[in-house]
Structures are given as structure tokens and as C-alpha cells.
Automatic annotation (TrEMBL), chains A, B:
Residues 4-267 form the Pyruvate carboxyltransferase domain. Transmembrane segments: none annotated. PANTHER family: (R)-CITRAMALATE SYNTHASE (PTHR43538:SF1), ALPHA-IPM SYNTHASE/HOMOCITRATE SYNTHASE (PTHR43538). This is Citramalate synthase. The keyword NADP does not apply. SMART domains: LeuA_dimer (SM00917).
Amino acid sequence: MSDFHVYDTTLRDGAQQEGLSLSVEDKLAIAGHLDALGVGYIEGGWPGANPKDTEFFRRAGDELRLRHATLAAFGATRRAGMKAADDPLVRALRDSRADVVTLVAKSHDRHVELALRTTLEENLAMIRDTVEFLRAGGQRVFVDAEHFFDGYRDNPAYALEVVRVAAEAGVEVVALCDTNGGMLPDQVGDVVSTVLAGTGARVGIHCHNDAGCAVANTLAAVDAGASHVQGTLNGYGERTGNADLVTVVANLQLKRGRDLVPAAALREATRIAHAVSEVTNVPPYSRQPYVGASAFTHKAGLHASAIKVDPNLYQHADPEDVGNDMRLLVSDMAGRASIELKGRELGYDLAGDRALVTRITERVKAMEAQGYTFEAADASFELLLIEEVEGARPNFFHVDSWRVITDSRPDEEALSEATVKLSAGGERAIVTGEGNGPVNALDAALRGAIGQSYPVVEKLDLIDYRVRILDAGHGTDAVIRVLIELSDGEESWQTVGVGHNIIEASWEALVDGVTYGLVRAGVEQSEQSEQSERA
Amino acid sequence: MSDFHVYDTTLRDGAQQEGLSLSVEDKLAIAGHLDALGVGYIEGGWPGANPKDTEFFRRAGDELRLRHATLAAFGATRRAGMKAADDPLVRALRDSRADVVTLVAKSHDRHVELALRTTLEENLAMIRDTVEFLRAGGQRVFVDAEHFFDGYRDNPAYALEVVRVAAEAGVEVVALCDTNGGMLPDQVGDVVSTVLAGTGARVGIHCHNDAGCAVANTLAAVDAGASHVQGTLNGYGERTGNADLVTVVANLQLKRGRDLVPAAALREATRIAHAVSEVTNVPPYSRQPYVGASAFTHKAGLHASAIKVDPNLYQHADPEDVGNDMRLLVSDMAGRASIELKGRELGYDLAGDRALVTRITERVKAMEAQGYTFEAADASFELLLIEEVEGARPNFFHVDSWRVITDSRPDEEALSEATVKLSAGGERAIVTGEGNGPVNALDAALRGAIGQSYPVVEKLDLIDYRVRILDAGHGTDAVIRVLIELSDGEESWQTVGVGHNIIEASWEALVDGVTYGLVRAGVEQSEQSEQSERA
């Protein structure tokens, strides 16, 4: 690895995101993931400014076993008009015993006057004193030059002076911050070049995505000579977020040939990005570059035959390099080639059987014409595939009938109640379930009715439910498509149901989802004998 | 406006997004929004390649009243080894009667050989013939040079030849496509410069976001001389999506001083982006640049006083220029202006009554925090406005209770049956209605029950119904938002309902929709006396 800094600020600037709130345990978990990704520096928070961050640094020393990363504490320069040693917030930075302290310093004259309410000269003294105090205690010091690009536009001489003063005081790197996020790449590149030429300081870059250019701005700074990049996992951050660190690193490493993190660690990026979104409880963004669920997903059936010959004609990078997968969507443009590829993805080699592929392709097309979609319902497609390959659909239970009732209640939310009559494992069951909606009620009744025969269904959870009206404008003839996502705690899968009645379409998707869950769990089909008895 | 082209491809390339599927009605609605945004060109789809797109172009001529935009049909060059005039797909482009046809042409030699399976020479002939055929029929022709940047890297001479041949055949603009989305801004800028210098063609740019640089790549192309930008609303598109057209336009117009769309139209951008996400049923992304709900949101505290003195110190652009609002997470600065504007739009002058505007703003905020949205539910907002202005909500009937039952039926679709008990016009009614879904059944029962008192409700039709699950991932605690559209045959209006139970949320929207229909019809509220009798 080179001396280039990959500096993560998920735990500090990322945590500024609206609706994101991290406990100390969350922060420790994320720090572990960041280390596995191979970043060089993890900014853990602001010890002294809030008790959670103080505790994080206290526990990090004992509990984190970092292999790659160095922990950095974030803080501000001393207050105006006092000694650094007398400022309790500065002392807390020293007490954090972090190897690196990153100090935020104002570099925009108007902000010094309006937010700090002090003089430009005193601001420079605050930087100098604080850096020297921390350096004297043995800590390495970085500086975040806040609002640098806006400041440089309004008063270039002062902005440069801030960098110079910091460097002279012993700062290792001055990260130029586009705090308001409005810069465009050419501006960032020009300013970084000027700062490097004018100060001799080592320069870093910290970008926000307000103009949709955080990644490109970071690259422009690196092209101009910056050798320290800041960013956050999944681009978390205030407003539109910070530069997405994985995208930045993947671009630099895979497209610019820079050696920033171990290749094996980068191959964990997709897993890590998703694991962190489990910790933050912010749903993953499927269109996220490199690691998004859709990032290497292709729809057009047109190209499927060419994709088979050379997938690299249709992808900008090898998804394996970031731990992602190429995925083909079965869509109404689908042809034989994409069905074959999709089969291979699911572990079925269909290539040898032309008649089978034709049959599946035609069935998919006919169902899609009715309103089904398989691109977001892999599990329904796999059940169809099993049915065509093995001659019968997996069949664990036989439903006689169901009914669901929803009643208004005065001064309370409405209540739904469902009754399902079915036979499973040779036993007939009539079970009623309640829910705060008709689908929850049906789900409860269905799983109640088959739970005795298949206890594994108790682990399943209905985690998402989507409804789409097709042919809107046709009033009561509208076709309704329901997508349901079930999870067994480890993985999740989606199924689809279609019909004129929303409840019936939901029921179809639910039955598919539970059936797929039983297939996945390796349950034996005890219902087949029952079925033949009936026949 | 300059001659610069703002070219939208939401309806064609945007619709390639995983999980996005647009009906003809959806496409017509989105085209109306795009026109309101002031784009120059709307690519409507591929007539001839699928019946939905053929129908879109057929209906667009009659139903769309475009003020700014020109409609473009997308299609491919003729097949190898035949005349353009004999290719039914090319003929369909002419028959679409679109003013502009945008032809996709291969410009990467490997793709010509592997995907088209023809010679490099024949590919050039296919471009020449198809362009000349369409030009002879009086249509303007643009070309999308597919995989241009990868093609240029592998075989620059051939890629340039494609541009030259297209320009010589009479193409107005050749859009260079980063189809795989992996380019970085410096590469894009260099190639665009070279193409402009080497061919004399007018150059456009079409970018995807696979490396997180779609917006920056588009800007780099414009800086190098491209004068036609393609993109999609909300950055919809395959994989990681296309360049977000609003971000591109806002950057060029607000930061580069280019005059691309009317300033008043750009001030509608936030509303339009959200309205379109209601049509596509893709949840809006709160961190989206310029138009995201969080795009101008600040965690107040530290900087609050400085923000009050000069908000521009903390924002990269004026949120009003894109119709967004600065929002402080702990205080109340947002909304008032837009509530006033909205009131004026609906015919209520609220400007004189500060307390009233504050009350409405706070109520809207509280309801939005629960999951309501009024962007696509004008009728619900107007009912709320009437309630606050006049002291009481329009009230034509009093509901005692409702119930809906859905039953499976062997070998038939499920049937729903609803019973509503209410009093209207002094009469108590208990009416049961059937439907092929629970909402249709409730609609039938509700209108049956009030129809005797208010015969005008027989004219109303339930024409659209949309469901969105908020807080997906929270399982049974999920909040459900229902949008309903009713029509009286002349105009239509939308209402919103929110709750944990999908049926109850639908009922709320339905009651609002019917109530609004009665207000619209000028019906007198005979229920008020009945209400007071009960009290």
C-alpha cells in the first residue's frame, strides 16, 4: 500500500445524516467493518463534545482489534482568547489517546467573523496553538479546512494563509473541505493545484454531494495532487451526503491503478456496505455505484446473447472486484438467452435442452403479458423453473379456501381477521389469524395452519409488501400486481402475485413466498402423498 | 432560451430501471410534468418495438398539449442486409409522426461484430440509409452513438467514422453515449474535444452513473463543447441510473449561468420530481441533489445564529431556485411560503393571515411526519384548507361503521363484499356492495349508501389507486399510504389516506375523494343539521 490516505468519516460526518443515530455499539460495529474494508483512518467522533463519543474512544482501545486502520479523534481549534491547554475540549482530544487528531479550522473569512466572532488573526493563532499543544503531547495532527473552497473564492490570500500556518505548526495533512458541497470538478482541481503550488502543504480533500459531484470532485483533487481522500460508507452525511468512500476507492484503484486497499478487502465492499446499512437501519440504495443491488443488473433481452459471449462488453468493471454479481432480469424483453443465463445463475443448466428453454420462455412471456414481473421476484421465477425442470411445482400444502374480514372500530384502527382452511402433512387445519392489515392477517393464518407440519415457517418474516396497479385508468378492470418479500433472518426473497383483487394477488405472492421458504430450508414435501390420495 | 438541447429520456432509458414499469397513462402524465419543467425534447419510447410505445405516440398527438417540448421517437438503424424502407421497425418510426427520431447506432467495433453480427462497413451503411430515409420523410434525426467511449478507446478511427457518416447523412446531433457508465470526467472531456475537432458534428452527451460521475461527466462534455445533454428525472435508469436531468440543468443554469429552461419552470423542479415519483411508485431519495427532502436540511444548533444572519454561508444554491426549502431540523422555517403559494393556486388568499398560515403549515408538517403527502393529493389538501379557513371540514354524511370481506372461490377469482352504515341527508342507510377487490366493494357500498341523498355521486369513477409502503423493513409496523384518484368524467382529483391497515387507509382516501366530489359539484351540506341533532 502507498502512503496515500483513505480516511473514513462515517462515524462523525456521516452520522450528521437526517434520521441516522448511532449508539456506541453501532459505532464499534461499523469501525470493525471499516477496518475490514482496509481504510487507513477511521474518524470515530468528537470526544469531549458528547459523552457517547468519549465512551467510544474509551472502549475502542480495549474492544477494537484494528488490523489496517488508525483511529482519529475529531475536534475544533481552541476557543478564542484562551490557551489551548486551558480549553477543556482540546484537553479531551489529548485525553482520548487517539493516535491522530483531526482539527476543524475555519478558512473562510466571513465564517470566522460571523460564526466564531473573532478576528482573522486570532483564528490563525487558534490553529497554531492547538496544533502545537497536541503535537507536544505526541499526537499526529490533521486539519479539516472548513468551507475552504467558498473561502478561497471570497478571500484567497486568507484561505492560503490558513493552510500555511497549519503546515508550519506541524500538521501532517490539510484536508480542503467543500463543506457546502456546491463545487464542480474543474473548480476543485484548480484550487487544489494552486494550494499545492502556493503552500507546499500535503493536501487532502473532503467533499459533499450537493451538486451531485462529490465523487468527481474528489477525483479531480487527486488528479491535481491531493493524497488524502475523505468520505463515508454509503455516502452517508448531512443534506445530500458525503463522497461515497467505496465509489472513490474503487474508481481510484480499479480505473486509475492506485493501490489503496488490499484487493481482497475491496472484494468485501458489497457485503460491508450492506452490513453497515443493517447497523444504521438506512435501507440500502439499489442504484448505488459498485455495491448497489442493481449496479450490475441488466434488463435488455436484446443483448443477452452478446453478454454470454463477453460480459465485459456490458459492464464498466468486474463486479467480483467489489464483491458484487452480474444479474440478469427476466423481463418482457427477455429472450431465450437471458432465460438460460438466469437459469445458470440459479444453478440450473438449461443449455442442453432447447425445448425446455422454449417452454419456459413462452410461459414467462405469457405471464408477463398478464401483468406478472419476474425481475423483482426471483423466488417466483425459481418456483416456475423447478416446475418446468422437474415436472411439478413444489407443493407442501393444499389450500381449500380462505377468507379475510376487515372491520372498522370506533376510536381505534381497523382490525383484520383471516381464516384459512388447508391440509398439510396429511392433517387438515382451520386457523384464524389477526393482523393490522388483511395481508398480515392472512400471513398469520397461513403460517398458523402449516406451522404444526412445518415448524420452520415460524422463522419467516414478511418484511416488504408492494402494490402496483397496472392499466390504471381502466377503473375496476385494473390488474393489480403485488410483490412480497419474506426473510428467514439470513436472506430474503421476493415473490409476485397478480389479479383483479388485491387480496387474492397478495395471497398468491404469500403462498409462493412461504413455499420458497420451505424449499430453501430443505423441507421434504409430505403433501405429495396427500395430493395423490385426493386425486 | 439558447439553442442548447435539454433532452429527457425518462420514458425510454429511465424505464429500463429495475422494478420500474410505466403504463401509457403513466407516460402521458410524466410527459406533462417534463413539459412543465421546460425540457426541449421528450423521448417517448420505441414505437413499433412494443405496442405500449406505439399507443403512446398515437395518443400523445391528441392528448398532450406540449408548450415547450418536442416529442422524439427512439429506434434503431435498419437491420443488416435490407433497405431502410423495407424494415418494419424503421417504417414504424416514420409512422409515429414524431418530429424527431433518435436512432441508436453502434460505434464500438466489437459490438458491431458480436451484437449486430455484421461488418463494420455494413454498420456505416445502415446508419447512412436509415438517416436518409427518415430525413426524406421530413423528420429531424438525432443519433445516439452507443458505447461510444469504450469504442473510442478500442478503435478511435472507427468511432470517429460513425460520427462523420451520421453527420454527413444529415443528422442534427450525435449524442456520445457512455452506455456502460464507467467513464471519468477527464476522459469524457478529452474525447468530446477530439470528436468536435475531428468531425465538425454537433455533439451531445448521454451518461450513466456506474462510477458515480454521471453528472460530472455531462458537465465535462459541456465544458468541452457538447451542446445537447441527455438525462432522466430522478436519475432513473438501468443499473445505477442515468444522469439526473434536474441536477445537470440546475448546475448549468445556476452555477454556469446558462439559460436552459425558464427560471419559473426550474422553481417547479422539486414538486415535479416528487410528483413523478408518485407516478413511478419509486420512493423519492431524500439525499437527491437540489430536490431531495434533505437537500437543504441543516442540523441546526451550533450555526443557527449565523444561518439567520446569512443563510447563503451554509448553502451552495438558493433552494427557492429549484422549488425546495431550507429546513432546520429543530426549528420551523420551512413551508409557509409554499403553503401560501399553494393556497393562492387553489383560490384562497392566505397572505394576510399569518396565524392561519402558521396553523396550516404546522398541521401539514405534522401530517407529513405521519406519512401523508399532499404533493399528489391536491383534493385532500384543499379539504384541509377549507377546514382551517372556514372552521369546519365539509361534511355530507356521518359514517357509523364499515366492514369488508374477501372470500376465495374455487375456480373463480376472489370476491369482495363491503357493508357501510351511515347517515346522509337525515336518512340512515345500511348498504352492501360487491367488487372484484375490497376497495371497489367499499366504493360501491359508500356510493350506494349516499346516492339517494346525493345522486351526483353516481357520476363519479374510481380511476386510479396507488399504494406505497413507508418504513419498509419494519414488518407489521409499516405505515401504508394510499392515493386514490376519482373522476366526474370531466376532471379528476387525488386524495390520500394513511394508516397501518391498507383497507382503512383506502377508506380514508375514498371518503375524502367522494367528499371533494360533492364540494366540486356544489352540493349543499344537508348533513350538518343531522350532525347537530346527534350532538
